Amino acid sequence: MLELTMAAVTAADAGATAGMQMAEAPSEPGAAVRVGRDRSVCRLVTPDDWLFVSRVHLEFRCGPDGTWQVTWLRGSQPDPASDVRLVTGAHARSLPYGGITPLPRGGSGEIVVQDRTGPRSVNVGFHHEV
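Above: the chain's sequence. Below: its structure in token form.
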């Protein structure tokens, strides 16, 4: 089971959890959860006017062995309006635009989508329950 929590954070409400969304998906091959602005395909949806987040920005997908990975999907622009990083414990690493990275099996952490033009971020916490 993959459990996700998402909070859209601005400098004005840093630390607040208002508007937090949650989603979960079984660790079955092909299961997917998407994050972005498009309500028709994303289970976790950011504010419509947060254009630094693509219509479908992140995709969490379960592989054939029950492990999860996250993909930063390429948007319509050649260069992204945000930076994305994976934080697990004391370690943080940037995800490349269009890149895929595995999530720790049985672990937890956070994916942070940071607006390059202002103090806004989308923080997606994850917990992989085995």
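Residues 78 and 97 are 9 Å apart (CA to CA).
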